[in-house]
Model the fold of this input.
Amino acid sequence: MSFEAVIGLEVHAQLLTKSKIFCGCSTQFGSSPNSQTCPVCLGMPGVLPVLNKKVVEYAIMLGLATNCTINRNSYFARKNYFYPDLPKGYQISQYELPICSDGYIMIKTKEGEKRIGITRIHMEEDAGKLIHEGAHSLVDLNRTGTPLLEIVSEPDMRTPEEAVSYLKELRQILLYLGICDGNMEEGSFRCDANVSVRRKGDTKFGTKTELKNINSFRFIQKALEYEIERQIDIIESGGKIIQETRLFDSSKGITISMRSKEEAHDYRYFPEPDLMPIFVDEVHIKKIKESLPELPYEKRQRFKDQYNIPEYDIEILTNERDISDFFEKCVSLYNNPKTLSNFFMTEIMKELNERKCGILETKLTPGNVVEIFKLLDEDKINYNGAKTILPKIIETGKSPSVLIEEMGLVQISDTSALESIVMDVLRNNKKELKEYLSGKDKLFAFFVGQVMKRTSGKANPKILQDLLKEKLSKISIDEVDNL
Ligand code: ADP
Ligand code: ZN
Ligand code: MG
Done:
């Protein structure tokens, strides 16, 4: 009997606001510990939180981008638990009435597109960070009060691949909206994965476990694969899954029990008395809706309609907004999307990957990319020349026409210049020339090679071939000695 997995994901996305959710402290990453704190985020008695409007706006943006209902009324709640990184002893979150609910996003799967439901999106504050040093633990409260959106999915995914695809799509939407930097290593996009298994055909879900502490797409895939296997093994050997939270150990590739349901916290949620309920009116929602950028799935569709380039290229080109904007600027200057897309796929992406940098961090501009193609069209360089100058443009920002002069890459397309080299080569290789003229056609390539050698590969191959053919056709075997 075969099994199928059921997966639901809870994602925390750190928002790119300048200040924290309930105070004016900076949210910048990497400052010295506890330098970005104040009585509010330190949880001193007697202080009052003030809601950062931007957080509400960002939540609505994501809600609209993920087809959610924006709840005109919602409110904050206190989630009570004790932990050293939480100075107040409670986290301000949303519970019964979140700001967004009942949405969905479309993801790509092997079988085509699939709709994954989004149960809710709510706003909350982040906790601080514990740094463990030997026998001591230190507390850094810079992150305390950083705004988060928690995005809870329906248990709609059936494979680790679908889970990864969902996360990639969601992350891309956040990046397109510009409300989260999506950095998984730094923890600004983190995911808890809930997973259960059931026999194929069953309609009821099995008991789930929750996997925490997974900070890359690869680890999510691995953690889920391991956990699904583990659960199937237990059921097949007659055991029962216990509902628990498990940690992924990335060095061993396994999940380890952290706490069972019995040990789970009772958070004693209640409405936050220090904050007003949140009301958002239609006009405000409409304004945000109108200001939304083009979203990844919309852009992919438009690229398909507009540029007639392969689906795979579209995937890569629209992966980052900067790349797609850059590509479109190039197309507006040089109307050959297919050629440009090829060059992006094979050359530009390779250079960016090697440097691990974004396209805007290089000195490349749409202007100089397009200039490369003009030089190619005018036969000033060949494709190899284009490949050679690209890294130099990226590093120096110099224009392609200057670089090909500097690097001596200008193609020799001038017929008279090539003609004298061709004649010289023929004169200096009389033995081969005679053989050729008496029927050894293969030697044509030899002459091409000799000219290329003399010009350090810069002879325009097409012009050279034509010229050589013409010359050879005019020489008769008894003329060779007097050439
Ligand atoms: P809890 O009460 O443990 O918080 P929820 O019902 O709120 O559980 O769901 C939390 C997450 O777990 C959601 O993303 C949901 O889709 C997912 N989930 C719920 N039940 C299952 C299940 N049986 N198997 C896999 N995922 C599940
Ligand atoms: Zn503060
Ligand atoms: Mg829940």
In short: Residues 294-390 form one domain. The first helix runs from residue 53 to 65. The longest strand covers residues 112-125.
